[in-house]
Amino acid sequence: MIKILPVVIAVCLSLANFQFFDTDEKNPPPPESIENPRNHLTQDADHRSEVTAKVLSVSEASSKNLTINHTDEKIPAESAETPPAEPEGEKILRLTWNIVPDAVKYKISYENKTAVSYTHGVEIPVQSVNSEIHVTALGFSNNVVNSDVEIRSAETNPAAPRTTTEFDKMSSPPIYIVYSWIPTNSADHYEIQLLRDGEILRDYLTDYHPKDDNFDFYDKTPVLDEGEYFWRVRGLSADDEIITEWSEQAPNNTFIVKSPETFCALGDSITHGGGSISVPPSTVVYNWENYCAVPIKNLGRSGDTTEKLLDRFEEDVLPFNPEILFIMAGVNDYRSDILGWDSVMNLAALKEKCEDYGIKPVFITPTPLNPELIRKVKFINAPPYDWQEHRKYICDWMRKQEYCIDLTDTFSDANGWLKPNLSIDGLHPDAEGKKIIGQAVETWLTNYLNNN
C-alpha cells in the first residue's frame, strides 16, 4: 500500500496539469456569467466557429425572392417582410460607441435589464428611448476595462443594419475584406453584397449564427482589381425573407483599389489585423499598418503559414507591383508542428520570388507565443513543446538577410514568451503590440526613404 501511494499522488498531479480539474487559485470564477464569443481571429480548425456563407448568383438570389439590382436603391417598404409585432410602446434602440482597446465585450445596462455586445454597438428593445443606459467595457475574464463608456449615437427603430468597417480611416483596406456590422435585433442571418463601380461583384448569404455573435464575415476571395468599391448588408428571416433595407453607402464602407502600390505587407492574421478576440480586421485600432504614417497595402490573410504565403504570391502580390514587400510570417508554422527548417525554405523561396520581380523583401521577425494565455482562452490549439526552437531558427535566418526589422526583444518576456500586457489570447498582439509593429516599420521606412 505504501509503495502504491506515491504513484496515486503522481497521477493526480498529472491530471491537474492536463486540466481535468483546475488547481489555479489565482484565477477564480468570473463574477458574472457572461460568455465570450467565438474567436474572430484564429483559424484553428479544431476551434473554428466562424460565420460562413454561400455565394449566390443573381439567378439564385432572384429565385429566393431577394431584390437584386445594379443600383444602390433601397428596398421599397412594401417589399419587405413586416417584423413580428412588438409590445405596445416598445421600440428598438440602436446605440454605438467607440472601440475600447483591450475590451472583448460590452455590458449594456438599461430598464433593469442587461445585454451583451461583442462589437461597439447594439440594438435593444426599450420602453422609452429616454431610459438611462450604461455601457461597461469588459475584458476576457469579465474584468472591467472601462466602467463608463460614452455612447456616441442612438437611433430609434433603424430600418437597415449599420456597417462598422472603418475603410475611411485606412490608407487602404485589406485585400481580404472582413465585412462587419451591428447585429440587427430581428435578423436570423444576412445577405452581403460587394459592388464595384456600381455593379454587383459578389453576393453572399450567411448561415445562421447566434444573433449577438453574428457581426462579421471573412471574405476568402481577394479584392485585386482597380476600381471604386462599396459593400452593403441587409437582414433576413430564417426563411430568407427580407426584413430590413440595405445598409447605406457611406465613407466607412467605401474604398478604392489602385495599382501600383509602393509598399505592401504580406502575412498572416497579425498583418491582416484584428485583436482582443472579438474585434475584426475591419477596424483600425488593431491594424499595425495604420500606425505607420507611410501608406502600406495590406495583403495579410488570417491563418496563413509560410507555405500558403508562397502559394499566393503571384496572385496577391504581383498585381500591386510593390517596390518594398514587408513579410511577417512563421507564427502559424511553429505553433502547429511545422519545422523551422521548412519555414525558412518557404521564406527563402519568397525572397527569391521578390528578387525575380525586382521587389525588395523586408522581413519582420514573427512574434512569440504565450502558452499560459493560450491555455486560459481554450480556443487556440496549444503550441508544441519546442516551438521556441523553431521560432529562433526563423528569426536567426531573418536577421541574416539584407533587410530585417527585429522585434524579438520588444515582444519577449524573461521566458521568451509574448509579453502578457501585449496580448489577451497569447497569440495575437493587441492595440499596443500593433502600434509597436507599425512604428517600427515607419522608422525603417523613414531611414530607407532618406537614404534612397
How would you sum up this structure in a few lines?
By secondary structure, this protein is of the alpha+beta class.
Topology, element by element:
Elements: H1 4-17, E1 53-55, H2 58-63, E2 91-97, E3 105-110, E4 113-117, E5 121-126, E6 133-138, E7 144-146, E8 151-156, E9 178-180, E10 189-196, E11 199-206, E12 216-218, E13 227-236, E14 254-257, E15 263-267, H3 269-272, E16 297-298, H4 306-311, H5 313-316, E17 324-328, H6 331-334, H7 340-356, E18 360-364, H8 371-377, H9 387-399, E19 404-405, H10 408-411, H11 431-450
Parallel strand pairs: 15-16, 15-17, 17-18, 18-19
Antiparallel strand pairs: 1-11, 2-5, 2-8, 3-4, 3-6, 6-7, 9-12, 10-11, 10-13, 13-14
Structure description:
It is a single chain. The chain has a domain at about 260-450: SGNH hydrolase (Rossmann fold). Helices cover about 20% and strands about 20% of the residues. It has eleven helices and 19 strands. A hairpin with a 5-residue loop joins strand 6 (about 135-140) and strand 7. The protein starts with a helix and ends with a helix.
